[in-house]
Amino acid sequence: MLENSQDLFGGFGSDPHEYRSDLVTVARKRYAEFLGHDGITPNDMVVIGDSPRDIECAHANNVPCVAVTTGIFDREKLTSADCILEGFKDISESVSAIIKTNRKLNE
């Protein structure tokens, strides 16, 4: 069993950070250590969250964001995400959507 978030290569709200956008740097560092190199691009990562702050965090780092309507924010508040999921009821569909998500640039 994983003891804490240090065992994962992601960034989590419980990780020490001054600004939410710093969590992408935490995740990138862990991912680089896992892979053994640091040639990670923004589309090699994805932020999954349930709040507008999670979307801001991702986009401040030009990383794609998958918003999930599992928190207090409804779909309308999450529209700036690159993908929106209505929960994780169908895990295969959810994983597929996450893998396919790329950063939408201003259209």
CATH topology, by name, is Rossmann fold
How many domains?
1
Number of alpha- plus pi-helical segments: 3
Sheet with most strands: strand arrangement? 1-2-3
Structural class: alpha/beta
Q: How much of the residues is beta strand, in percent?
A: 5-15%
Q: N- to C-terminal separation?
A: 43 Å
InterPro entries: HAD-like_sf, HAD_sf
Task: Describe the structure concisely.
By secondary structure, this protein is α/β, with parallel strands linked by helices. It is built from three helices and three strands; from the N terminus they run αβαββα.
Summarize this structure as a short list of keywords or feature phrases.
3 strands; alpha/beta; Rossmann fold; 107 residues
Provide an overview of this structure.
By secondary structure, the chain is of the alpha/beta class. The chain has one domain: 3-Layer(aba) Sandwich (Rossmann fold), CATH 3.40.50.1000. It has three helices and three strands, in the order αβαββα. Strands 1-2-3 form a three-stranded parallel beta sheet, with helices on both faces. Strand 1, helix 2 (52-60) and strand 2 (65-68) form a beta-alpha-beta unit. It is globular. The mean pLDDT is 87.
